[in-house]
Each structure stands twice: as C-alpha cells, then as structure tokens.
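lol forgot to send this yesterday, sorry. struct tokens for the thing we talked abt
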C-alpha cells in the first residue's frame, strides 16, 4: 500500500503515547538482539569445562599431548563455532522483528478504534496498520 498524503495532521496525546510505545518496541528489539548475540557468544567462548569423575581415567588422558592439543582454547572455540546451530540463532533474531511488527500492528489497530481521534489521525493509523510504504 502506498502511504497517503495527510495534510495538517495534528496528533493527539493518545497518538503521541502510541508513537512512544512503538519507539519502546524498537528499543526492546535492539536489546533482545544484543542479549541473543551475547548468549550466542557465551555459548561459544564461555566456560568450556573438561572435568571427569574421580577414577574415570580422565587424569591419565589429560596428560597426553593429543588431549592437550584437542582441548586447547582455540580448538574448543573452533569446534564450538562449527557445532553452533546458526539457523536457530538467525531465526531467533528474525523472530524479534516479527514480534515487533505484530505489536506495532496491534498498537495501530487499537488507535484506529479510538473514537476520540480525528479522521486524519484514524487515516494515519490505518495506513500504519496496513503497512504503507513510500515508493
């Protein structure tokens, strides 16, 4: 849908509050993206432990050169990067955007149902709800 031209649009306090809610949703999406990224990095690089049960023979294995090479931080990190499920990570990031869009649609829909808004404001919120785009 092409965005309508709305001349002399005056936004009420209700519309200004709705716009602030949309800004808050955008900030939450950014925060969620950062948290997912930090979690992913922590899963890859954070605290890889190589402890065995007492008497399990792990102490004997730890002394070998092959074990020392395979358990080095670089080898562990390289394997963690390889073994990470990147598809799930990127789907999660995309999911945040989809959630934000649905919430923006909800805010815009509720504004179109607000009987105290002017006709121009309702037209503005209807355009947002329908996803108008500049061409």
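and heres what i got for the seq, position by position
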């Amino acid at each position: 849908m092409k965005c309508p031209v709305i001349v002399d649009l005056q936004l009420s306090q209700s519309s200004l509050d709705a716009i602030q809610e949309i800004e808050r949703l955008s900030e939450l999406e950014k925060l969620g993206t950062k948290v997912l990224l930090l979690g992913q990095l922590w899963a890859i690089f954070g605290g890889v432990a190589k402890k065995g049960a007492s008497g399990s023979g792990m102490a004997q294995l730890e002394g070998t050169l092959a074990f020392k090479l395979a358990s080095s931080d670089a080898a562990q990190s390289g394997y963690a990067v390889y073994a990470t499920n990147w598809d799930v990570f990127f789907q999660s990031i995309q999911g945040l955007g989809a959630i934000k869009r649905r919430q923006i649609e909800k805010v815009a829909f509720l504004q179109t149902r607000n009987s105290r808004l002017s006709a121009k404001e309702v037209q503005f919120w209807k355009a947002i709800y329908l996803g108008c785009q500049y061409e």
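Residues 13-39+86-130 form one domain. anyway ping me if u want another try
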